[in-house]
Amino acid sequence: MDKLIVKGIRFHGHHGVPEAERQVGGHYEVDATLGCALVNPGNTDALTDTINYAEVVSRIVEIGTQQSFQLIEALAEKIASVILKQFAVDEVHLTVKKLHPPIEQPIDYFAVEIFRRA
After folding, report:
1. What pLDDT is recorded for position 42?
2. Which of 25, 61, 101, 105 has its CA 20 to 30 A from that of 14?
3. Catalytic: 3?
4. What is the CATH number for 88?
5. What is the extent of the structural domain holding 22?
6. Residue tagged active-site, from 3, 7, 85, 98
7. What is the total count of domains within the chain?
8. Which long-range contacts (CB under 8 A, 24 or more apart) does 68-73 make?
9. What is the pLDDT of residues 77-107, one digit of tens each?
């Protein structure tokens, strides 16, 4: 299967279990791989025949910044569900990272990785 890959979609979102964490918010990063047929757009060279990745990025940022979830697992599920419903993709692979989470031991990020099919 062909793939469109978008890495490093960054936004400030209000997600987390403690209410205080949701109020302050934090930094998140999403990597998305979309499984779809790319033969036709490869032959026509027409944007109308492919997935506009700018629109995919906009939807991911919109969900991440305008909605609030306790778990990034729920954030990932919402993003995957929207992508599968709104874009002509057969599958989506997402990695959602919570950058520098507020825990005692400093870490670069915590992430979930999900694979979903239409």
Report:
1. 97
2. 105
3. no
4. 3.30.1130.10
5. 3-117
6. 98
7. 1
8. 68/13, 68/14, 68/15, 68/22, 69/15, 70/15, 70/16, 70/17, 70/22, 71/15, 71/17, 72/15, 72/28, 72/96, 72/98, 72/110, 72/111, 72/112, 73/112, 73/114
9. 999 999 999 999 999 999 999 999 999 999 9
